[in-house]
Design goal:
Shape: globular
Mean pLDDT: 90
CATH superfamily: Rieske [2Fe-2S] iron-sulphur domain
Largest sheet: 4 strands, antiparallel
Structural class: mainly beta
Protein name: Non-heme iron oxygenase ferredoxin subunit
Low-confidence stretches: 114-122
GO molecular function, one term: monooxygenase activity
Number of helices: 1
Helix content: under 10%
Strand content: 35-45%
Keywords: 2Fe-2S, Iron, Iron-sulfur, Metal-binding
CATH class: Mainly Beta
Radius of gyration: 15 Å
InterPro entries: Rieske_2Fe-2S, Rieske_2Fe-2S_sf
CATH architecture: 3-layer Sandwich
CATH topology: Rieske Iron-sulfur Protein
Length: 122
């Protein structure tokens, strides 16, 4: 696992979620009640950006359909999502935020926007 510097501490105020990159991996970085969390940036329901959502008491809420995910485990705590999101270890040192990722994280993560449907041509 390699830790990547992704942001200055002040870039993620308490109660907010923002999009950043850890190397090639797009992540949502959130601070809730003083603790910084890193998750994948795409909801497992319909691939909406979690960094466009809001933090709620239970975790990170998706702005598209209201799914909520636990920030520590990635488990869905409110529907419609039923699959967990990825979570990554975070270190905050000397005013900087670092996120730990592996090569497998990069392969499994990254933008998962669905490709447009290919219409048959006649």
């Amino acid at each position: 696992m390699e830790y990547h510097r992704v942001a200055r501490s002040g870039q993620v105020p308490d109660g907010y979620v923002r999009r950043f990159y850890a190397g090639e991996l797009e992540i949502a970085l959130a601070r809730l009640r003083g603790t910084v969390y890193a998750t994948s940036n795409y909801c497992t329901h319909l691939d909406c950006l979690l960094s466009s959502g809001k933090l709620v008491d239970e975790g990170i809420g998706c702005s598209c359909h209201g799914s909520v995910f636990d920030l520590e485990t990635g488990d869905p705590v409110a529907p419609p999502a039923t699959e967990p999101i990825a979570t990554y270890p975070v270190r905050e040192e000397d005013g900087e935020i670092f996120v730990g990722i592996t090569g497998e994280d990069v392969k499994a993560g990254g933008p998962r926007r669905r490709k447009p449907l290919q219409h048959e041509t006649r």
